[in-house]
Amino acid sequence: MQYLPLFVKLTDKPVLIVGGGSVALRKAGTLLSAGAKLFVVSPEFSPEFTNWQQQGKAELITGYFSPELLDGKLLVIAATDNDSVNAAVYNAATARNMLVNTVDDQPKCGFIFPSIIDRNPIIIAISSFGTAPVLARRLREKLETLLPQHLGPLAQLVGRFRDQVKARIKGFAARRQFWEKVFNSDVVRDVQANQLPQAEQRLAALLAEPQQLAGEVYVVGAGPGDPELLTLKALQLMQQADVVVYDYLVSPEIMQLVRRDAELICVGKKAGAHSVAQRDTNQILIDLALAGKKICRLKGGDPFIFGRGGEEIQALLPHNIAFQVVPGVTAAAGCAAYAGIPLTHRDYAQSVQFVTGHCRPDGSEPDWQSMSTANQTVVIYMGLMKAAHIQQQLLAAGRAATTPVAIIENGTRLQQRIITTELSELAAKVSTEQVQSPALLIIGEVVSLQRQLHWFGARPNSAVFAQPLTRLG
């Protein structure tokens, strides 16, 4: 992060602008809208500056820049068309440890002017730090269409109630839950319809109601890693939660999207790494919910496909804890799609099985015979450590040694790696390629289509399927 975004209160604060032309005029307008006290030095001025001086909004200094003009100023903007003057302003300000902006010269900027979306008092600022201003402007235009105009009046309304809410409702978590209820209520609809007195009455009525902390657990699937695969509901609940209880398999990019002030609790769930025991994870969820917290139980993939989501919800039921379940893109679907492997194809695979590579608690084996049938796809989760055993059992059950196999490491992520081989070489490939978790195994004839349908990331490390398989029928 090259710049720390800050919102500065400039009301009646002295700001110096060096330059009196059109570029300086744009910066001056922005500063005046923020209430700054302007001092402008230039040999000559655009008419708007003269008008502002007559209105008492700016003090014009006819002449040239000199370092003593910086005395007592909070900020300075160099906005002339003379590079040597702008450099002199920058050097003098830097020597005084003052914040300086040199227009259209990003290396000589101690602060920058972002693109602004104004829904006063809601302000959104966007910046590329001077590297891609057109892209920043396009983002602003996009957001302008998404953010309704009633956000400003809504923020002003709740701002008038802030002290009342703080006096009546004790504790940050309880107040946050109250405001979540307000923003999900008809108060918003009233403001949108410009029925402001009615909105105020409705908000007052909500505040007068008995306030009670109600704990809830959101069991949310985070998908296989790409944050753009998150559902809208998953993102909404990640932002609402007081606490996020997450697994190692949730990618760092997705963890960046949770609420900044949420408590984070990692419970592991990754092959070869320390994990919190499942019963202890269940108890964490119970204790937090009974304390009135909103908990996002964030899981890689889908919570109901090898995610133990069902077990955790069963633990909540005896305590009458409210819960929601948000499905996610399971690793099989996400990783296969990003690798260019259709899990089913009418010419190559008419069925698909999802299997876990972890042994069951009683030590019983999966039905290897059912997985040995040709023209079906088998997707094995958490199969790295058991790769040799999986290879041996499938071959023993009759699956052809030449059956195509894909090993997908970090599927859907920027670090995605695809290794293709045949079933008879599976264990050797896992070893020689030093495959790391998270990784998924896809076994079946559809893997031969990978070279043709590949679209995301690097090409596979191995290319053993030079010719497509003969189609059936």
From TrEMBL:
<feature type="binding site">
    <location>
        <begin position="300"/>
        <end position="302"/>
    </location>
    <ligand>
        <name>S-adenosyl-L-methionine</name>
    </ligand>
</feature>
<dbReference type="InterPro" id="IPR003043">
    <property type="entry name" value="Uropor_MeTrfase_CS"/>
</dbReference>
<keyword id="KW-0808">Transferase</keyword>
<dbReference type="InterPro" id="IPR035996">
    <property type="entry name" value="4pyrrol_Methylase_sf"/>
</dbReference>
<feature type="domain" description="Sirohaem synthase dimerisation">
    <location>
        <begin position="150"/>
        <end position="207"/>
    </location>
</feature>
<comment type="function">
    <text>Then it catalyzes the NAD-dependent ring dehydrogenation of precorrin-2 to yield sirohydrochlorin. Finally, it catalyzes the ferrochelation of sirohydrochlorin to yield siroheme.</text>
</comment>
<dbReference type="InterPro" id="IPR014776">
    <property type="entry name" value="4pyrrole_Mease_sub2"/>
</dbReference>
<comment type="similarity">
    <text>In the C-terminal section; belongs to the precorrin methyltransferase family.</text>
</comment>
<dbReference type="InterPro" id="IPR019478">
    <property type="entry name" value="Sirohaem_synthase_dimer_dom"/>
</dbReference>
<dbReference type="InterPro" id="IPR006367">
    <property type="entry name" value="Sirohaem_synthase_N"/>
</dbReference>
<keyword id="KW-0169">Cobalamin biosynthesis</keyword>
<protein>
    <recommendedName>
        <fullName>Siroheme synthase</fullName>
        <ecNumber>2.1.1.107</ecNumber>
        <ecNumber>1.3.1.76</ecNumber>
        <ecNumber>4.99.1.4</ecNumber>
    </recommendedName>
</protein>
<keyword id="KW-0627">Porphyrin biosynthesis</keyword>
<feature type="binding site">
    <location>
        <position position="224"/>
    </location>
    <ligand>
        <name>S-adenosyl-L-methionine</name>
    </ligand>
</feature>
<feature type="region of interest" description="Precorrin-2 dehydrogenase / sirohydrochlorin ferrochelatase">
    <location>
        <begin position="1"/>
        <end position="203"/>
    </location>
</feature>
<keyword id="KW-0520">NAD</keyword>
<feature type="active site" description="Proton donor">
    <location>
        <position position="269"/>
    </location>
</feature>
<keyword id="KW-0949">S-adenosyl-L-methionine</keyword>
<keyword id="KW-0511">Multifunctional enzyme</keyword>
<dbReference type="InterPro" id="IPR000878">
    <property type="entry name" value="4pyrrol_Mease"/>
</dbReference>
<keyword id="KW-0489">Methyltransferase</keyword>
<feature type="binding site">
    <location>
        <position position="411"/>
    </location>
    <ligand>
        <name>S-adenosyl-L-methionine</name>
    </ligand>
</feature>
<feature type="binding site">
    <location>
        <begin position="43"/>
        <end position="44"/>
    </location>
    <ligand>
        <name>NAD(+)</name>
    </ligand>
</feature>
<dbReference type="InterPro" id="IPR006366">
    <property type="entry name" value="CobA/CysG_C"/>
</dbReference>
<dbReference type="GO" id="GO:0051287">
    <property type="term" value="F:NAD binding"/>
</dbReference>
<dbReference type="Pfam" id="PF10414">
    <property type="entry name" value="CysG_dimeriser"/>
</dbReference>
<comment type="pathway">
    <text>Cofactor biosynthesis; adenosylcobalamin biosynthesis; precorrin-2 from uroporphyrinogen III: step 1/1.</text>
</comment>
<feature type="domain" description="Tetrapyrrole methylase">
    <location>
        <begin position="217"/>
        <end position="427"/>
    </location>
</feature>
<dbReference type="GO" id="GO:0004851">
    <property type="term" value="F:uroporphyrin-III C-methyltransferase activity"/>
</dbReference>
<comment type="pathway">
    <text>Porphyrin-containing compound metabolism; siroheme biosynthesis; precorrin-2 from uroporphyrinogen III: step 1/1.</text>
</comment>
<feature type="modified residue" description="Phosphoserine">
    <location>
        <position position="128"/>
    </location>
</feature>
<dbReference type="GO" id="GO:0019354">
    <property type="term" value="P:siroheme biosynthetic process"/>
</dbReference>
<feature type="region of interest" description="Uroporphyrinogen-III C-methyltransferase">
    <location>
        <begin position="215"/>
        <end position="473"/>
    </location>
</feature>
<dbReference type="InterPro" id="IPR036291">
    <property type="entry name" value="NAD(P)-bd_dom_sf"/>
</dbReference>
<dbReference type="InterPro" id="IPR050161">
    <property type="entry name" value="Siro_Cobalamin_biosynth"/>
</dbReference>
<dbReference type="GO" id="GO:0043115">
    <property type="term" value="F:precorrin-2 dehydrogenase activity"/>
</dbReference>
<keyword id="KW-0560">Oxidoreductase</keyword>
<dbReference type="GO" id="GO:0009236">
    <property type="term" value="P:cobalamin biosynthetic process"/>
</dbReference>
<dbReference type="InterPro" id="IPR012409">
    <property type="entry name" value="Sirohaem_synth"/>
</dbReference>
<keyword id="KW-0456">Lyase</keyword>
<comment type="similarity">
    <text>In the N-terminal section; belongs to the precorrin-2 dehydrogenase / sirohydrochlorin ferrochelatase family.</text>
</comment>
<dbReference type="Pfam" id="PF00590">
    <property type="entry name" value="TP_methylase"/>
</dbReference>
